[in-house]
Specification:
The chain has 214 residues and is of the alpha/beta class.
Length: 214
């Protein structure tokens, strides 16, 4: 297995033994990204429409979930992979972020389990980016996460990484069924939509947000 956990001065880190030049990934909930009302993510989530509850069903390292919670949304973050869950447990032991709840669960399964009063107004999806034209230049975070979640074929989670990619259709359907108002999907600009044509799209330099109204 290429990806593994190590102790670092900042906390538990995730490394890829096949890419030793990459520094460890550590979740830091004490240093959120600050969003403003001009950010496309805030527009897509519907803050100005009064929407406040979000389930981030593909939390990963939690940067988007933390940024949303810091802005003012009530966020439930779901992560399915055991190595990334361990990073979250370590981060939460070091710092508790306001309005951010973490759930160790597969996103689609968690969404399907919600009763009506617990359904969020918004479901946010940021699935693992597909390989694209800039594969060789993937950023450090994506390279290590792919090693852990997609390329890990050892142990009890032998097919977990492949399932994380293959199950996006199931996840998208679960998001549409659980969200009360909208589903927001983060994608590379060059990638195809997860579902049918979005109702609206916000394009950035390298990523976009696809909006599906429910």
């Amino acid at each position: 297995m290429a990806a593994r956990l190590i102790d670092t001065p900042e906390g538990i880190g995730l490394v890829d033994d096949e890419a030793p030049e990459l520094s460890p990934l550590v979740i830091d909930l004490a240093s959120p990204r600050r969003l403003t009302k001009k950010d496309d993510l805030i527009k897509a989530l519907g803050w100005e429409k009064g929407l406040r509850t979000v389930v981030d069903a593909t939390a990963g390292l939690g940067r988007d979930a933390l940024a949303m919670a810091t802005y003012g949304f009530s966020v439930t973050a779901c992560e399915r992979h055991p190595l990334v869950q361990a990073l979250w447990r370590d981060a939460l032991a070091r710092h508790q972020a306001e309005r951010l709840r973490f759930v160790e669960a597969d996103g689609a399964t968690f969404l399907a389990s919600l009763v009506d009063e617990d359904r969020p107004e918004v479901v946010y999806l940021d699935p693992m980016y597909p390989h694209g034209p800039r594969r060789a230049l993937q950023q450090r975070e994506l390279r290590i996460l792919r090693a852990a979640v997609v390329d890990n074929t050892d142990g009890d989670n032998a097919n977990d990484g492949a399932a994380a990619v293959a199950d996006v259709g199931k996840l998208f359907s679960a998001a549409l069924a659980a969200a009360k108002r909208r589903v927001v999907v983060k994608r590379p600009r060059w990638a195809e939509p997860l579902g049918p044509k979005p109702h609206h799209t916000w394009d950035g330099a390298s990523t976009r947000y696809d909006l599906y109204m429910v």
